[in-house]
Design goal:
By secondary structure, this protein is of the alpha/beta class. It has helices at residues 2-13, 36-52, 73-86, 95-103, 110-124, 129-134, 137-147, 150-157, 186-191; strands at residues 24-29, 57-62, 89-91, 162-165, 168-171, 206-209, 218-219, 223-225, 235-242, 245-252, 256-261. It is globular.
Length: 262
């Protein structure tokens, strides 16, 4: 009996840290929300960091919510598309991309979209604010659909619900506990908070997500949240992963930097 207990305790102590496959490197970027200035700064920081770490097959994952709330969603979308032509970038769809796409087809959804930061997105495409606010829902929708290029709508609509590399899964909001990853609903991946945030069990992979704002990266035993409030706190965060190593890169209104995490 004593030997059995020792063996069980030994297994518990030897839990393997999540890892990225050999020869690969991943950078995950949290919610940008129209902060093109921070996004450009973080791109520069990631490119420098990637070059300094030596050769690897590097993938960048943007975790969604590129748009809304900040002043230059149009600029962020344009820069994200450009970066995707320059290197391997995976795009995850957030709830704010979903709201824009729904509002583009359903005028009844326009008011809710504007309330949650969509106004700033539409204005970034050059529409006059007074004209927009004076319009009814159908006219707002028409103005928005004329101002935003169809290529941008198609780009945002092409975003994935999740991306997996090694022991990690990358998703905008989270996943539903006790549901296999291959059966996760897109709506949960884009909107969920509870019961995901308080769950302490295994999700089937180590989850990297955004969506829920915290002043610093939210590191837990089964997940890391990296939405550090680009539009609210002025800090945009990226998580770097290689093997079992993790590190953070930031761009902020005050400074940019890199910190190591075990």
């Amino acid at each position: 009996m004593l030997n059995t207990i020792r063996k069980l305790m030994g297994r518990a102590d030897q839990r393997r840290a999540p890892s990225i496959p050999s020869g690969e490197r991943v950078y995950a970027v949290g919610d940008i929300h129209g902060r093109d200035d921070l996004f450009e700064h973080l791109i520069h920081t990631i490119e420098q960091d990637d070059a300094a770490r030596g050769r690897a097959h590097t993938t960048v994952v943007l975790l969604g919510d590129l748009i809304d709330r900040g002043d230059d969603s149009a600029g962020v979308v344009a820069r994200a598309r450009q970066w995707g032509r320059e290197r391997e970038v995976e795009f995850i769809q957030g709830n704010h991309e979903e709201m824009l796409l729904v509002a583009s087809k359903d005028a009844e959804a326009m008011r809710g979209f504007l309330k949650f930061g969509g106004l700033e997105t539409i204005l970034s495409y050059g529409i006059d604010k007074d004209t927009l606010l004076a319009a009814d829902a159908e006219e707002m929708q028409r103005l928005m659909n004329e101002a935003i290029p169809q290529d941008d709508f198609d780009f945002l609509d092409s975003f994935k619900k999740m991306h997996r590399v090694g022991d990690y899964v990358f998703v905008h909001a989270g996943v539903r506990p006790d549901t296999p990853l291959e059966h996760q609903l897109g709506r949960d991946c884009r909107w969920i908070r509870e019961p995901f945030l308080s769950h302490r069990g295994d999700f089937g992979a180590f989850v990297v997500h955004g969506h829920t704002i915290t002043p610093e990266p939210d590191e837990r035993g089964n997940r890391i949240g990296i939405d550090t409030g680009a539009f609210l706190h002025g800090t945009l965060t990226a998580l770097g992963l290689q093997g079992t190593d993790r590190w953070f890169l930031t761009a902020s209104d005050n400074a940019a930097g890199c910190s190591e995490a075990a």
